[in-house]
Amino acid sequence: MGIKTVMVIGAGQMGAGIAQVCAQSGFTVKLNDIAQESLDKGKAGIEKRLDRAVEKGRMSEDDKNATISNLTYTTEMKDASDCDLVIEAVVENMDVKTKVFQALDDITPEHAILASNTSSLPITEIAAVTNRPSQVIGMHFMNPVPVMKLVEIIKGLQTSDETYQSIEDMTKELSKTPVEVNDFPGFVSNRILMPMINEAIYTVYEGVASPEDVDTVMKLGMNHPMGPLTLADFIGLDTCLYIMEVLYEGFGDSKYRPCPLLRKYVKAGWLGKKSGRGFYNYEN
Ligand code: NAI
Q1: What is the pTM of this model?
Q2: Coil/strand/helix, residue 55
Q3: What is the mean pLDDT of each run of 10 residues along the chain (284 residues)?
Q4: Hey, which of 33, 97, 125, 154 would you mutate to test ligand 1's pocket, going by the most ligand atoms within 8 Å of its Cβ?
Q5: What is the ipTM of this complex?
């Protein structure tokens, strides 16, 4: 059965963007959050981005209105009872996610696919709390969702080829590029990105170079659009530490040990841009 109606759970940074791109591509979308305030914020963000796209000539007024009419907002998860696909984008916490998946397993039709946008948690473990592990899959969008072209599609141990194919087709309908990945810690994106960021932090920790100089080397020498320490500040140093812990624990290999300086900054509350201070100072 084809995917027509989608619920996105969690109207935060990622969920609102995912709902927007699905609605823009003609899917009927229900955006859900437990907090009305988050739903209101998500809706305002979507409408602001659509207005800007029209102003810049990237979208017609008709397409904007069609996108808006494809979207509804709800605090009731039971509204997923007629959905073909649910994309979960709640906080990165296994307990919260498994509760959501158990509830969805009861609410959604038998044919529905349940996807998670998790950036680091094992899909196999999330799938195991449902009675439909073959229909559970990872759909890892990148931030900001309306701009970034990649979707990492993660196959859990029990994910069926049919489920994978439906999600790959849907990803293409969203005008994104799918990449097939098996379920291992960090998938591909964070397994490569986070150790690079961690190594950049070690370089500062060991006094090899300043944060500015490390970033300059990677920007001008490797043609990266943003240096690794600036990127770490944008992602959030708590998130970077969390993902390094997932890699360290998941592989049991010392090459993934989080840098002590990263731990120290997180303990100090220096979490990057969102807290005003990380490797750079954002307060003023
Ligand atoms: P966020 O904190 O901005 O949004 C999470 C939202 O989920 C909040 O609005 C919260 O009210 C809601 N929520 C929490 N529990 C809920 C529940 N039981 N039912 C319904 N809604 C609930 O988080 P963000 O950054 O959007 O991340 C969401 C997921 O996406 C996480 O798994 C994260 O790892 C992943 N991700 C994040 C990226 C990023 O750059 N921020 C990139 C790729 C994936």
Answers
A1: 0.94
A2: helix
A3: 94 96 98 98 98 97 98 98 98 95 98 96 97 98 95 98 98 98 97 98 98 98 98 95 96 97 98 96 88
A4: 33
A5: 0.98
